[in-house]
Amino acid sequence: MKLIKKYKLLFASTLICLAGFSVIIRLNAAPQEKPQRDEFLMQLVSYILSEWHYSPKAVDDSLSKAVFDDYLKTLDYGKRYFTSSDIALLDKYKYDIDNQILESDMAFFRSATSVFKERLAQVSSSLDSLLAQPMDFNAQETLNTDQQDYAPDMKGVLERWRLYLKYNVLTRLYSDLKQEDKKAEKDSAYVKKSQAELEKKAREGVLKNYKDYFRMMDEFNDDDWFSMYMNAITGYFDPHTSYMAPRDEKDFNTRISGQVEGIGAVLQSKDGFTTISSIIPGSPSAKSGQLSVGDQILEVAQGNDEYVSIIGMRMDDAVDLIRGKKGTTVRLKVQKADGTIKEVPIVRDVVEIEETFVRSAIVEKDGRKFGIIYVPKFYVNFENKDSRESSADLKKELDYLKKEGVEGIAIDLRNNTGGALSGAVKMGGLFIEKGPIVQTKSRDGRARALSDTDPSVAWDGPLVVLINGVSASASEIFAGAMKDYNRAVIIGSKQTYGKGTVQNVIELDNMVRGKLFGDNPLGALKLTIEKFYRVNGSGNQIKGVASDIEIPDMLSILDIDESNENYAMSWDSIAPLPYSRLQGDFTPVIKRSRERVEANPYFVQVRENLKWLKERKENKTIPLSLENFRAEDLQYREDSKRFDLLDKFESPLTYVSPQHEKPLIEADTTLASKRKAWHNELKKDATLEEAVNILSEMKR
User: Fold this and answer.
1) Integer Cα distance of 311 and 303 in angstroms
2) Torsion angle of the four alpha carbons 116, 119, 121, 125, in this order, in degrees rounded to the nearest 10
3) Residue 92 CB: number of other CB atoms within 10 A?
4) 423 and 493 share a domain?
5) Nearest to 500 by CA among 598, 416, 568
6) Where does the pLDDT of residue 348 fall: very low under 50, low under 70, confident under 90, or very high at 90 and above?
7) Is 41 exposed, middle or buried (0-12, 13-18, 19+ CB in 10 A)?
8) Which of 244, 295, 402, 620 could crosslink 248 through cysteines, CB 3.0-4.6 Å?
9) What is the 3-state secondary structure (H, E, C) of 606-617?
10) In terms of domains, do 552 and 667 share one?
11) Regarding predicted confidence, which is higher, 338 or 47?
12) Would you report the helix, strand and coil content of the chain in percent, each value rounded to 5?
């Protein structure tokens, strides 16, 4: 592929290392030839995709059509902005985007984005008129939730918006009418508000919500739109290769590490003000004692610098001003609930997002103790080796639970979408003496084994692993290894997500000598570089890891697994590795569990409910008359009564925190509240109850 034809990039030196994966590119261009950032970025990413992606694709008409369709879908998923005339005008680009990429031409991107922003503005400016008058909820109208075609013109677009807004008003109105009826039932003297009053209130609420939405959309800058376009390109190669704008990269690092440097206040935009919605326990904000939920941050200053107003500022920009390096001071000018203005200096620190980290609970059954360990993510901080890491935290929890005499462990990986590959390998090593955990294959066909070389075993007793259809990537590596080694019983959805690819994050600025674009960083590319395979040679891609005991769950109707992703890679297999499968026969335990699940009234209702929901899912129209809307709601409630066990289920088991955590809970009311809520959730978890049943039958 010809790279940056008009910019003359000279590849002076190249250093490729999968741990750091950096490549240095020198720009050999005269000052007047300095490239535009977006054009340069598109060419650079295109080159990397061509040269280093696991399964590169030609930049041709197929790519062009895919990018055309995906970018328009990204902009207007519900077909409520573009007109068919707009699409006809843009259609000339459908098979030309590949040429534009090669020639650093941004014509399609700029044309499509410009048209969309124009339509966005037209819809936004029409909100007041669309919601100005009382709505007729006697009219026999319906809302189509699955538009297949674009509206022919703006009149048609606004008609779709009229119906969509009417639906929003109707849902609010209907809810308020029911609340008024309940109040009147409780208090015979209560005078119910009229439908006209409630309708007006509902319209005003919808208007405010959508004005806030369009205000947020108006804050999108050129980088935001371009990032969407870049991901229409990267998504053609596979669903897990993606461009991350600088701000997205920061958020990605926070998610995978569970840590952020800042003040520890969760912020939201409310009526143009940056407002504190919650304060993280133990954070600098909590320790200062000077900030409260509901406080509005008006101005921000760095150290002794002048204050900068953030009123009306885009939330991301306000957050960037408030966050900063550990040990630095930020000064906030805050308006309290009583209207007083207060200056609050805070020294930033590393803030841990507690929900990211491993946690455990203990449950008793028939006088025997069992441990439950929830692993939300395979987290790691690549920039600080001394920070928390998922396998190390799991090892600590195992040690705590062993001291309390548990006889079995359930590792809960449900909704764990993955994280660091290294964490999955280390975690697998905690349960076997030594051996390969996973193998990977690069685009040149070479396979490598990632192994546990430590003969020590943190837990050698009964083990159950819980998975669902969202358990992905590193979760699948761990679950697959435990299954192949015959180390654990796998229980949950029919299979895991089915993501069998490995990504590496490439810092794009590291590929250019010097600061080509000043202080405006290029961001990063999350690139698929390998596929991974179980030690038995089977690929996890598409097929995932199958449960030994399948539990019916609601995820099955959402179609969210890898097989439903556009451009997902196919399944394949490679040669198995030599490994020692552990002795033990889980067959009787699995058989009894399957029989219990089949007969369990709760799971019987789940299966019936799934069938009912799939039938309802086929209905793509919503009535917009109050009478018909009420009739459908009443019918829904009547039909759903036969599934009452789903809401009422509560296990007889009781879950508590391990002893080591109790002093922490006593000293932190927020943590105590979170643990209490979590333990209550566990009592309502029928799958977890069955996991405990299995543990109680497994031989140590």
Assistant:
1) 20
2) -160
3) 11
4) yes
5) 568
6) very high
7) buried
8) 244
9) HHHHHHHHHHHH
10) yes
11) 47
12) 45, 20, 40
State how far the alpha carbon of 700 is from the alpha carbons of 378, 463, 496, in Å: 28, 9, 27
Element (DSSP H or E) covering residue 604? helix 601-617
The tokens describing 529, both together, are 């570089």
In contact, 286 and 310? CB cutoff 8 Å? no
Please tell me the distance from the alpha carbon of residue 320 to that of residue 316, in angstroms, as a whole number: 6
Assigned domain for 147 exists: no
Question: Both 338 and 396 in a single domain?
Answer: no
Q: State the Cα–Cα distance between residues 620 and 611, nearest whole angstrom.
A: 17
Decide: 310 and 297 in contact? Cβ < 8 Å.
yes
Residues 6 or more apart whose CB falls under 8 angstroms from that of 426 comprise 389, 391, 392, 452
- CATH number for the domain that contains residue 554: 3.90.226.10
Enclosing domain of residue 620: 355-503+528-697
Are 586 and 650 part of one and the same domain?
yes
Is the predicted pLDDT of residue 16 greater than 80, yes or no? no
The neighbouring-strand residues paired with 214 are none
Q: Which of 600, 602, 586 is nearest to 648 (CA)?
A: 602
Q: Is 93 exposed, middle or buried (0-12, 13-18, 19+ CB in 10 A)?
A: buried
Which active-site residues does the annotation give?
Answer: 473, 484, 499
CA distance 111 to 78: 20
What are the pLDDT digits (tens) for 244-278?
A: 999 899 888 888 888 889 999 989 888 778 999 88
In contact, 259 and 388? CB cutoff 8 Å:
yes
For residues 10 and 7, what is the distance between their CA atoms, to the nearest angstrom? 9
Q: Kindly state whether residues 599 and 625 are assigned to the same domain.
A: yes
| Count of structural domains, the chain | 2
Is 279 within 8 Å of 285 (Cβ atoms)?
yes
DSSP 312-356: T--HHHHHHHH---TT-EEEEEEE-TTS-EEEEEEE-EEEE-GGG
Mention every residue, 6+ apart, whose C-beta is less than 8 A from residue 642. 605, 608
Of 323, 352, 381, the domain-final residue: 352
Which letter does DSSP use for residue 357 in this model?
A: S
Return the amino acid letter for 452: D
Rounded Cα distance, 281 and 265, in Å: 9
Distance between CA atoms of residues 653 and 659, nearest Å: 18
| Residue 475, amino acid | S
One-letter identity of residue 443: R
Which residues are CB-neighbours of 585 under 8 A, at least 6 positions away? none
Diameter over CA atoms, the chain: 84
pLDDT, one tens digit per residue, over 312-334 is 888 888 999 999 999 999 999 99
558/296: higher pLDDT: 296
DSSP code of 568?
Answer: P
The answer to whether residues 420 and 256 touch, using CB atoms and an 8 Å cutoff, is yes
Which residue, 406, 385, 391, is CA-closest to 475?
A: 391
State which of 352, 368, 401 marks the end of a domain: 352
Say which residues have a Cβ less than 8 Å from residue 82's Cβ, sequence separation at least 6. 72, 75, 76, 115, 116, 119, 150, 157
In DSSP terms, which residues pair with 275 in a beta bridge?
268, 296
- Cα 663 to Cα 396: distance, rounded to the nearest angstrom: 17
pLDDT, averaged across the chain: 91
Residue 77 lies in a domain: no
Say how far apart CA 213 and CA 201 lie, in whole Å: 18
Q: Please report, for residues 108, 113, 239, the alpha-carbon distance to residue 226 in angstroms, rounded to integers and kept in the order given.
A: 11, 9, 18
pLDDT tens digits, 23-40: 434 333 333 444 689 999
pTM (2 d.p.): 0.89
Collapsed DSSP state (helix, strand, coil) of residue 295 = coil
